[in-house]
Amino acid sequence: MADVETDFDLFIIGGGINGCGIARDASGRGLKVGLAEMNDLASATSSASTKLFHGGLRYLEYFEVRLVREALIERETLLRAMPHISWPMRFVLPYHKDMRFEGSTPTSKILNIMMPWMKGRRPAWLIRLGLFMYDNLGGRKILPGTSTVDLTTAPEGKGIEDRFEFAYEYSDCWIEDSRLVVLNARDAENRGAKIMVRTKVTSTIRHEDHWVVQLEDTDTGEARTIRAKMLVNAAGPWVGDIIQQKVRLNSTEGVRLVRGSHIVTKRLFDHDKCYFFQGTDGRIIFAIPYETDFTLIGTTDAEHDDPSVKPVCTDEERDYLVAFANGYFKQDITSDDVVWTYSGVRPLYDDGAQSATAATRDYTLKVDTNGGAPILNIFGGKITTYRRLAQSALAKISPHFDGVTGDWTAGVPLPGGDFPVDGVDALIRDLMRDYPFVDARWAKRLVRAYGTDAKNVLGMAKSAADLGQDFGATLTEAEVRWLMDKEYARRAEDVVWRRNKLGLRLNDMQIAALDAWMVSQREAA
Ligand SMILES: Cc1cc2nc3c(=O)[nH]c(=O)nc-3n(C[C@H](O)[C@H](O)[C@H](O)COP(=O)(O)OP(=O)(O)OC[C@H]3O[C@@H](n4cnc5c(N)ncnc54)[C@H](O)[C@@H]3O)c2cc1C
Fold it and tell me: Does ligand 1 come within 6 angstroms of the Cβ of 307?
């Protein structure tokens, strides 16, 4: 590529997990990277997931073996690089002979021909086969394999209806999705990237060997122009909008927008395992211990036509999840038990599948060089495969530049993740020893968010008063300053819904006071 005077080698549109993952990887290979996110980092899909690093057991029924295998192998690589924000979890899958397939999976079609008397029911041997593959496709070293649970005696059976006598139990991992995004952005910045939040890409002009990109500060309305040799379109649900409106490519590729909603209730069971519930409609949902005192239940699959329409959990979706869970839990819940909901849009590659549930969760990367400088468009993907997606993206980006170095991210910890996978308890103990005024619950929250950086958040404090203003629920001025200085937080909602989940514990007045304080600090600065 000709050597034009540009601000950036690579300019990334979108600060979700895919944009930030690519920014980190590319900066570490010596490229000069810029990234624009029109809202807060992870403000769209990447904070609205079920928060699992998982292979996706159900995708085996769609024969998506490559995707499942890649994701399974990846789980442990990711866990090692971020033992603060990710941890192993056991999933209890209660079995009942009346459980049904989604009718359109390749597996259900074959079984309908070979075993018509099953009438769409999922046989136990098939679940065992799926779990055997799940255990063995991904080269597990840390995570334990499948076992069985006698629900008539085990604690996991206590809150579950008596007709479920038996369950399978298998492993996957939890991930704090929005923190994963921010830590990738921080690491990218540490390696030289420029991360611009609340900065929207409004238009682009393509030249032979570079792009001119028009940016707008969404807080002030101020416009600005940058130049870059290559663009990456990692706009998630807006990938089509960028292609058609901002870059105006002649492309037929598209995404299928599939909304998924979750509900949160007060804690519904007394152990730390998750449930994997199968419904009579062939779908599955999870019920997951969440933020110590809560249970997270989801998700749904609903078509969502327009990315500019903010996804919300509809009453219908909420009632569906409540009814689904009530098919399993002895103690019924009602919509009054729902304390919070959230919703996100999956930007799935449009592979022409009939149902939203069946659309592929795999990713597709397409470079367009027609008519000038290159652009890479990202379709689909999962949180779990973000690092591999970034590596595949770099394989497509590197040939457009000289001297780009090779793959490097496997095994390199994210900020705060430089400690052993089983080292969380020791970090919590150390923090409580060094800061005796921090109790166990507070210490755990800080270590689970910041890992080895937790002590940097607390700094030289000798007492709680040294941490400045107390915003409630252990959120202090020192922590908010850290989030504003190091983690791109601008408003209270960035802090209480994406850097942590203290929005579940703070009331509206406390959140408004935090917001006013943050705005005043920015104005003063
Ligand atoms: C309900 C649900 C559950 C899920 N559960 C899981 C799970 O458990 N495990 C898993 O691995 N995956 C899961 N996923 C999938 C995963 O969340 C997504 O694949 C992933 O978050 C997509 O990330 P992204 O970066 O492509 O998109 P996004 O996170 O949406 O990021 C795109 C960003 O681009 C920005 N943007 C758009 N246009 C512009 C512009 N013009 N200028 C500047 N910025 C712009 C947007 O503001 C947005 O922040 C789930 C998804 C959903 C919806």
Answer: no
